[in-house]
User: Fold this.
Amino acid sequence: MLTKYNMPEQNLAKFCAGCGHPVALNFLYKALERNQVVDKAVLGLDIGCSLLAWNFLPINTFQTHHGRVTPTVMGYKRARPDSVCVGYTGDGGAYSIGLQSLLHAARRDEPITILVINNTVYGMTGGQTAPTTLHGQKTDTDPTGYEGEPMMGAELVKAVARDGAFVARTAVNEVKQLADYLDQALAAQKAGHFSLVEVLSYCPTNWKTKGIETNNYLNDKLKPVFKMGLL
Assistant:
């Protein structure tokens, strides 16, 4: 049975040990509760590790094709303007196959909220190089180290977004900031504006880290490159 701030164990078990997705999802649900919009909320899921959240939260949830979460959530919002629509996706789905839809949603100031989980790899399919992969980071498709530079997806979205849109970056281990930014993102949607929160997240399975190494990797590798804060 679902209880307040406490998701079912069988759902938590879907994600790898140490994954950051359960943290982000729990904080999203807390934000929906704080803002008293649980009954109005709908969660759209991209393909990837994000799809494992299909029954993680006790709210209306649907799964989309890869990279199509933004236009699908946008369509739901237009059909049900009184709803609170959140698109949940990884950095690959947002900044690669889904980039076109994401940018144009921001340009049009669509009143939806997009939550991007950035762990610098394509997690579900084995840890391949993603748009946000760090320079020199070793992946299954770049075993000697990625030669390129990571894409700054949130900054790109902010560059085309209209006044009133909310765009920010935080991390799963910055819990106060994460909670604050989710509240501000939902407030922007309520006011009729687009919002996006990028969340730097753990992927110990593909980072090949254990215990405290995972937290240190996020702090030492990701945060210096992906600057956190309001954009």
Summary: The first helix runs from residue 9 to 12. The two ends are 39 Å apart (CA to CA). Residues 14-230 form a domain with the Rossmann fold fold (CATH 3.40.50.970). The CA atoms of residues 85 and 156 lie 22 Å apart.
